[in-house]
Amino acid sequence: MVAGIEAGLETILVLTGVTGKSEIDRFPFRPSRVVNSIADLVPEVTPQ
Question: For the chain, which residues make up each domain, given as ranges?
Answer without folding.
Answer: 2-45
